[in-house]
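Here is the promised in-class demo. Please do not try to memorize the tokens; focus on the logic of going from shape to residues.
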């Protein structure tokens, strides 16, 4: 990512040269720029090795490739342990320097409007995104006690309860609104309002699918038939629903075109009661939209938020076209139905494509890969290299694979503890489903995975 500003403000790129492309497999992370630590003479060496042609090596190869005997390992274990506290102090000092440099790279919020006026909104958005990334990296340096971890777990549980309530209230609202809009469509004989009614029916189906997926994902797998969990049921459910919405929209398109070609002068029977029912539906959807907007970080709540937002447009536009068809020209009503159908079709084709990318395994965005790399880099002084970092979707959440390098004389107990604590740090991230940390004793090896394991 290039610096769009010429003011000389230091950017995150001063710390690490990261890939400009969104590569989730075999990502090349280059060499850590010397500006981060070269000014510190006691800086601990922490280098990123170019791994574009070298895949990760597992910890099993680390043990098989070690030529040290038991006596030699016993001799080096004591010296390694003795250096452990010194290395920790060195790492703390190094991390403090890195944190100070990161804070110095942040752009003040008061300067963002000025940058937007002078350089444009794209440049301003660049600095906003950079500030968010730096804040997430600074969070890595915060030591969390057991109480903090328990509090985070409690907050996460409360957040999930709010999401579950959003799903339940959306289902209840869609049941009521479907009945109301069915009455409006049948009594008004308006194609535009019939389109809004059909959309409400499909909204009810989508809410039921999300509710079923949420319940299925949370149920315990007593027979261990799904070792990696069932969270991807939600993604599959959204794809199925998007397909149904596409078929439904196509039917509305055909009906609208038929009505327009027939050149019928028959007006709809829209009355005041019908209009009031649509207004009530709009108010309900607006309230649900704001509630789901506050929970939009959750995938299900985000889908519901988009659904309620679309309903606001569909119902408003449908009511407007029905009124115009009633009081001006009759052909405006089927034209409104045509536009609503096109909007629904476009919206759900895009949603289906995004969900298909998630379930196929699209890479995480570069900013998250940077965060994973920085977390590994600053995790422990005995980590000498970060060989490979991968993060890819498996449904709505991410699988993370990180390969680190430690000295061959490091005791197995310490290797295990370092890798496990790093893995736990990754899995505490909200968007991570599962993390795998592999350890090797060198990074100049041929790929151990088959060529077809990861795309190049």
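The designed amino acids, position by position:
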């Amino acid at each position: 990512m290039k610096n769009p500003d010429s003011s000389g403000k230091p950017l995150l790129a001063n710390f690490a040269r990261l890939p400009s492309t969104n590569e989730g497999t075999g990502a090349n992370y280059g060499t850590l720029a010397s500006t981060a630590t070269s000014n510190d003479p006691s800086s601990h060496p922490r280098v990123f090795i170019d791994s574009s042609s070298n895949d990760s090596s597992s910890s099993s190869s680390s043990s098989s490739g070690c030529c040290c005997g038991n006596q030699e390992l016993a001799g080096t274990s004591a010296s390694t342990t003795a250096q452990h506290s010194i290395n920790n102090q060195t790492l703390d000092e190094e991390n403090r320097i890195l944190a100070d440099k990161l804070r110095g790279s942040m752009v003040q919020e008061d300067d963002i409007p000025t940058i937007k006026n002078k350089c444009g909104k794209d440049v301003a958005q660049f600095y906003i995104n950079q500030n968010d990334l730096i804040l997430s990296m600074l969070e890595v340096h915060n030591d969390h006690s057991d109480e903090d971890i328990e509090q985070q777990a409690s907050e996460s549980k409360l957040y999930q309860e709010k999401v579950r309530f959003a799903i339940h209230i959306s289902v209840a609202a869609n049941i009521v609104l479907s009945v109301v809009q069915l009455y409006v469509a049948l009594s008004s004989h308006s194609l535009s309002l019939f389109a809004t009614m059909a959309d409400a029916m499909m909204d009810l189906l989508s809410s039921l699918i999300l509710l079923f997926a949420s319940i299925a994902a949370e149920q315990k797998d007593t027979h261990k038939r799904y070792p990696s969990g069932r969270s991807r049921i939600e993604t599959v459910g959204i794809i199925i629903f998007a397909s149904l919405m596409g078929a439904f929209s196509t039917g509305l398109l055909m009906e609208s075109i038929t009505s327009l070609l027939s050149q019928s002068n028959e007006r709809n029977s829209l009355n005041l009661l019908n209009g009031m029912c649509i207004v009530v539906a709009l108010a309900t959807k607006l309230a649900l939209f704001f509630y789901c907007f506050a929970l939009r970080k959750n995938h299900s709540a985000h889908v519901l938020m988009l659904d309620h937002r679309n309903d606001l447009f569909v119902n408003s536009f449908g009511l407007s076209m029905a009124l115009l068809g009633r009081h001006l020209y009759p052909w405006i009503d089927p034209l409104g139905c045509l536009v609503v159908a096109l909007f629904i079709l476009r919206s759900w084709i895009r949603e289906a494509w995004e969900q298909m990318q998630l379930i196929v395994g699209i890479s995480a965005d570069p900013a998250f890969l940077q965060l994973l790399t920085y977390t590994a880099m600053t995790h422990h002084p005995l980590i000498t290299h970060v060989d490979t970092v991968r993060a890819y979707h498996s449904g709505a959440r991410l699988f993370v694979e990180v390969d680190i390098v430690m000295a061959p004389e490091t005791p197995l107990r310490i290797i295990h503890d370092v890798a496990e604590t790093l893995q736990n740090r990754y899995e505490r991230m909200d968007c991570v489903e599962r993390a795998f940390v592999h350890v090797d004793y060198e990074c100049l090896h041929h790929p151990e995975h088959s060529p077809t394991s990861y795309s190049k």
